[in-house]
Structure formats: structure tokens, C-alpha cells
Amino acid sequence: MADPRGPQRSWALVASGLVVALTFALDVTLPLGYAGAFPYVIAVALGLWVPWRPFPFVAAAVASALSLVVLALKPPGSLWWIVIGNRTITLVAMWAIAIAVARYLTFIQVVSDDRARMGAILDTCADGLITIAADGRIELFNRAAERIFGRPAADALGQDVAILMPSPHREAHADYVRRYLATGEPHVIGLGREVEGVRADGAPVPIDLAVAEVSLAGRRVFTASVRDITDRRRAAAERDALITRLEQKNAELERFTYTASHDLKSPLVTIRGFLGTLERSARDGNFERLTADINRIAGAADRMRQLLDDLLELSRIGRVVSPPRALPLGEVVRDALESLDGAIRAGGVQVVVAPDLPVVSGDATRITEVLQNLIENAVKFMGEQPAPRIEIGARDGAGEVVIFVRDNGSGIDPRYHEKIFGLFERLRRDREGTGVGLALVRRIVEVHGGRLWVESAGEGHGSCFCFTLPTVTEESAS
Length: 478
Known about the structure:
The protein is an alpha+beta fold. 52% of the residues lie in helices and 17% in strands. It is built from 14 helices and twelve strands. Strand 4 and strand 5 form a beta hairpin. The longest helix is centred in the middle third of the chain and has 55 residues, at 230-284.
């Protein structure tokens, strides 16, 4: 247990012994009429610095015995009343000082124990506790405060509490305190609130702060309770993000339900309509019209099957994705182009692939599917372009790669840049397709943590579809 007086010094024991020896020699040498035993009091008083607590009583007992030994060796004679008086005063003084020193040491030990106990309580407290003098100096800084602010107590004690605040509050703090001391109008004092603190390395830290004022021995002192709410803020942000995603998914589900029911109903209406025509054709024996009606019913059934297949594929995205791995983008582009070689040749489209495409992270099958959809759309919507051309390339982003498929085809009006990614959305009804392709592409990209968008100045100016993928990490590379 540390003594608040400072380090206990064993030299005091040696000094006390020397005082006793010198006093005894002096007492033996001087005539009894002198107070030669009085320096024994000094030897007893030195017990303040002796680490052994019973020492003052031992010193007093030894000194008393030596004083009486001298009295026995040198009879007082006619001066007995002076000698007895001096000895009595010396003995009383020694024992009074011994008792006083013992009580003082006991008091100091109690204070030391209380401080140690309070320090242990403060240091095991989960919240940061800081006491601040009226002039703003930090007087107490517990371990939780050290952890929150990344600053040892030795560096914080005696410093202005403004070092724990970010700008502009740091510069305005002195004015806050002066105004409160002058007017009693609180700004933070007596109020709990969430604020920003600053760590020793300059990093911000969100904290829950409660400040109170107390009076200690007529001195105004402020106590601050601080709690790091970084995890709470993070949890709240994650909760809000989850709620937002759920709201988006619910809205998407509503749109999906409405759109799917509408588009799936269309082939059924066609089939039902031609069933009546089919019956009349059979009854009239018109086999030519009968064959045409059967073909139209089969076409409607095929369209419904295609719609259902696309919906099934869309629903599987996000549930069936292989673990991401390092993908040389050039190889993925080559695979996508090979699968579309017939359509590209038929359309007379020139395809230019940028050299030295980067390595990205993702599921090879799904990323190939994304590129196939985008390239196929570019071929399909070239319009009357006499020299159709598609460019495929990539550029670096912030921790991601931006991949683009650019064409010089019919282009897209900016009003429809977002609409085209919706389910069953088709700007041109004279083209084959179910309108699920771009919705499927967006879903795949989002599952990979990326984004998808289109850039086009409008009709006749071509289009550029861009999507992002994460750069290769050690995990995906392995």
C-alpha cells in the first residue's frame, strides 16, 4: 500500500538510533541539572518516517529506560526536585509524541486504504470518470477514460479538459465555462447528451456525456461521466440500414407481385381467346386457320414458360452464388463473346476489347451471365447503325473496378435510365425478350456488392452500361 507521505525511509531508523546514542552520552556527561535527556524526543518523532509502525513506542520505551539508568548512575542529591521535574517532563513528552505519531500513522494508513479502495473502484468502473477543476484542469482520469480517449492518465492530469474535445468546441470551451460560472446557465452541465470526443491520435470518438457540479471544501469541481457509444452508433446504423433494405425489398416485392401477375396473365388471355377460335376452326373444318391458332397458343405457352424460367432464375440469384474468387476479366469477357458469336456475326458488329483487363473478385458463372446480357442487349438494340460497334473495358475506382459495355446503337432517353432495370420493363415491344434481363443483371451485381447504371445522352447517341466489382483481396485470391 503506497503511503501518501511518499516513500518510507529506512534511514530514519538509523538516525533515531544515533540520536538515542548521542543523547545517552550527553546525559551521562552533563550534570543532572541540565535537561540532557530531552533530545530523546527527537528519536521518538523520527518514527514518522520509520516503516515499522510500533517503532514510536519502542523508541519511547528505550529512551525512558536509558533516562532512568542515568538517574540511577548519578544520584540527584540536593537538586533532586529539578532532576525529577526534567525527567518527568521528558518522559511525558516522549510518550505523548509516541502516541501522536502512532495515531497519525494510523490515520495516514486509513486515508491510504480509502484512496486505494476508491481508486480500485474508479479503475474498475466501465464508464470513464473525469474530475475537472473550475479552471478546466483535469484532476482525475480513470482507466476507462484512458481507454476511451487513448491517453494515459499521466498525460491527461493537469491538462485543460479541452484537449479531449474536437474543434470548434475545443476553442469555445473556455467561454462556455466562464459563462456558466458567471450566469449559472448550463450548456452541458447537468444535462446528459451525445457528443463527439477526440482521442490522443486525433481520431473522433462518439461518447455519451453527463457532467455535474459538486463543491469540495468550498471549491467548485466538475465531474464527467463518459461512455463510448461507438458500438451503439454502429448497431444503430446497421439497424437503420437493415430497415431501409427491408423497406426496399417490400416495395420491390409489391412491384414484383403486381408486374408478375400482369405479365403472366397476358399469355393466359391469349390462350383463352384462341381456344374459342380453335373450336370454331375445328367445327368449320378450316384446318389452315386451326393450325395458325394452335401455333399462336403454343407461342403464348412458350412465352409463359420463358417468363416463369426467368422469374425462377431471378429468385435464385443471391441464394445460389459460388464463393468469390480471383477472375481474370479478360477470360470472362472472352467466354461471354464466344457464347454470343453467332448473334454478333449476324449483326455485323465490331467488338473491341480493351487490353490488360484487371483481375476482379466474384462468381465466374454469374459475372459471365452479366456480360452476356449486356453484350446481347447492345447487339439487339443497334438500330439502323451502319457500322455497329461495341467496346468492353474497365477503369479503376475507389477499392473497386468499374467495368463498362459501350455501344453506338439506338441509345436510351435519360427519362428511362432507371426504369429499364425494373422487372418486365421493355422499351421496345418489337424486340424479343421478357424484360427480366436487366433486372437479373442488377440483382447479380448487387449480390456481389457492386452497382449498375447506364450512361446515355438519349436516342441515337448509343449507351454505356457500367457496373462495379470488388478488387481482388487476399481472401478471394486464395
